[in-house]
Design brief:
about 200 residues; mainly alpha; Arc Repressor Mutant, subunit A; Tetracycline Repressor, domain 2; 2 domains; 10 helices; about 80% helix; elongated
Length: about 200
């Protein structure tokens, strides 16, 4: 019995991964459960046994991506051996290094976000925005401490500017020239100018 439960969980994870990949290829509206079944070499009935509809499958895929993004973010945030600049650089390069994840999250159809079962996603994204602003202020505090200086500009305003830069990067409506690690390095130079 236990092995069957583990196999079912493994199959469910494969379906979620296939859902993610198919949505990146075709978009949510064009994806079908048949696409997932074909991709995995299983019947549609097997896919339906794990997920009652494609919304449920998509919702789980979104949650998985958000969990992985948070895990990666926390690697930078919790590494106290890194300087403020290194932590920020790590956060700002995430949209480049994990571009498909950010694209996936930023292209959830609005009509789905209005549904009750998807409201948790919008709440989670809002919670992340608040966390990011608070973390930016915390980084600016750390910067003052690391460099033995006082910032002359409002930390809240600087945090908002950094957040807007970050949002712009992971919105993925930019041209390819802005989706490079070199461009992020230029942003970090801009950060140093802002805080002086």
């Amino acid at each position: 019995m236990r092995r069957t439960r583990e196999e079912a969980e493994e199959t469910r994870k494969k379906i979620v991964k296939a859902c993610y990949e198919t949505i990146l290829e075709k978009g949510y509206d064009k994806m079908t459960r048949d696409d997932i079944a074909v991709k995995l070499g299983m019947t549609r009935g097997a896919v339906n046994w794990h997920f009652k509809d494609k919304e449920q499958m998509y919702l789980e895929a979104i949650q998985e991506v958000l969990d992985e993004l948070k895990e990666k973010r926390d690697e930078y945030v919790n590494d106290k051996s890194l300087t403020v600049e290194q932590r920020l650089y790590g956060l700002f390069t995430m949209p480049v290094e994990m571009a498909d994840y950010f694209h996936f999250i930023n292209h959830i159809p609005h009509y789905l976000l209005a549904k009750d079962n998807f409201k948790c996603i919008e709440k989670r994204k809002q919670k992340n925005r608040i966390w990011f602003m608070e973390y930016m202020v915390s980084c600016l505090d750390d910067y003052e401490e690391e460099h033995g200086c006082r910032l002359t500009n409002s930390k809240q305003t600087m945090a908002q500017m950094l957040y807007l830069l970050y949002e712009g990067l992971h919105n993925r409506n930019t041209t390819k020239e802005y989706e490079t690690v070199d461009f992020i390095a230029n942003i970090m130079d801009y950060f140093k100018i802002i805080i002086r």
